[in-house]
Amino acid sequence: MPGGLPTFDIEAINWTHPIAVGFFDGEEYHEFIKDNERDDVIWRFLCYLNEYYKGFKLYAHCSSRYDSKFLLLSLCQHDEVVEMEAGLMRLKWKTPNILFEDSYLLVPMSLNKLGKMFGKGIKEEWEHQLTVNPWDMGDKLQIFREYLKKDCLLLSDALFGVCEALGTNFGITPSISLSTTSAKAFSTCFYPLRKVESNEDYEEFVRAAVYGGRNEVYRRYGEGINQYDVKSMFVSCYDTPVPIGKMRWVRPNINSGTLAEASVKIPKDTYIGPLPYRLYGKLIFPIGELTSWWDTRELRYAAQLGVDVSIRRQLLCEEEPILKDFGEFVNKLRSNSHGEFWKVFGLALSGKLGQGRWRDIVTHRSNIKDFKGLVPLDPSEEYFLGKEYVKGNAPYIKPAISMRIRSEARIRHLKIINEAYRSGEVFYCDTDSIFTTAKMPIGDRPGELVYLGKFDKGYFIRQKLYALLKGGKLEQRSSGFSDLKLTEEDFIELLGGKELEVETPYLPSYKKVLQDQEFSLLGRTRKILGELDRESRVQVGQDTEPICLPLTY
Question: What pLDDT was estimated at residue 83?
Answer without folding.
Answer: 87
